[in-house]
Amino acid sequence: MKYETVIGLEVHVQIDTKTKIFCSCSTQFGTPANENTCPICLGMPGVLPVLNKRFLESSMRACLATHCTIEPMNRFARKNYFYPDLPKGYQISQFELPLGTCGHININVDGTKKRIGLTRIHMEEDAGKLIHGENLGNPGKSYVDFNRTGVPLCEVVSEPDMRSAEEARAYLLELKSILEYTEVSDCNMEEGSFRCDANVSIRPIGLKEFGTRTELKNLNSFKFIQKAIEYEVDRQTNILDQGDTVKQETRLYDADRGETFPMRSKEEAHDYRYFPDPDLVPIIIDEAWVEELQKTIPELPEQKRERFVSSYGIPEYDTGVLTSSKLLADYFEQCASLFPQPKIISNWIMGDLLRELKKDGKDIADCPISPSALVDLLKLIDSGTISGNIAKGVFEEMYQTKKPADSIVEEKGLKQITDSSAIEKIVDEVIQANPSQVEEFKGGKEKVIGFLVGQVMKQSKGKANPGMVNKLLKEKMS
Ligand code: ADP
Ligand code: MG
Ligand code: ZN
Description:
Strand order of the largest sheet: 2-6-7-10-1-11-12-13-14
Structural class: alpha+beta
Number of helices: 15
Strand content: 15-25%
Largest sheet: 9 strands, mixed
Distance between the termini: 68 Å
Bound molecules: adenosine-5'-diphosphate, magnesium ion, zinc ion
Shape: elongated
Number of domains: 3
Helix content: 25-40%
């Protein structure tokens, strides 16, 4: 039997704020355990939460950037469960009246565009973190760090609209990019600012009803998300092929073994006994406020990609790479404004520049070559002062030393030789030194010219003008 995969994703995004969601404790990552705590986020009796306005506004901006409707009346609810990292015994979240509903994100997989629906975006507080004694040389004991407790999150829940691990990956990349562009989150996956749970089911192709889903928790890298989904699809396929049924359960992904394993079944699932939080008033949002925030939404990745194709005439693939971060897109545009050859710029950025940055684990923000410095190098190629090949070496040197292109060319004497008598001298030497190749050429085997050009280039240390070399060789041999 052939099956179709169905995927819906829940993403927890940490919203950038200085202070926590309901108190004034810092959200700083990496501070010593339990330093960022107070009676409110520790859930002491008698304290009252006060909503962080900055967080609410950033959450509204996240909704606007993903085309969600902002609900004019939404409210917080208590989600009750017992766990040692949750001091109050409930998490303040939103349930029946979330902040945002009915949004969408457009994705593009292998040139096919598709719209993925967003069911909702709701606001909630994060829980603390358990640290098990094994990792501290103290087996049998567990410790709790409440620094994360009360850190503000948005949960973004998608419709079950994705049909492959690739689509899930494209959705996550696009969501991450939108949130980064909007500057509501740094989406740092290593620090847990962008965490994904994947709901996966399969159904026989043609069948309308969805199959039973499993929920894969704690997927903290794009690679693992894809691998976990692929593993899960295989596992469910085997089950259905054997005539069995998939159990609805929550599973964890073991990255070392590349497998998912059960965490809890549907029967063990919590009954959260949600009810409206009596300590927090409903949030009423008027249209004027929404309009004001709408004005702060920047050009988003999708619009930018479309504009890059239409105004710079570069291929869609390039625009995808160049807009992968706003800073990289800005870098490209600065170059293009100084040197109107967008495709050449794009090639250098996608090739040499990104390769060097990746090698160093650096971001475009730390790039040692400024847009105008890169353009100066490209102008040297354009004017024929240096060859494209030599430019690669100059680029590397610029990257390492931050020196301008022209001084490197000057210092190392890398100027292209366009003086025909100088080239002629080398051409003569090469012809003398390679009589059999010359004979072959004269005998009609014209391809051998490539070898001879290569020899001349080698002797000139790459500095001879290749067009002139070609022409001179042909003249001399015929
Ligand atoms: P829960 O709170 O139990 O996780 P939700 O209703 O919030 O349940 O749904 C969670 C996610 O599961 C959503 O992203 C939704 O798109 C997805 N989902 C629902 N049914 C299926 C299914 N049959 N296969 C895959 N994903 C599904
Ligand atoms: Mg869920
Ligand atoms: Zn606090």
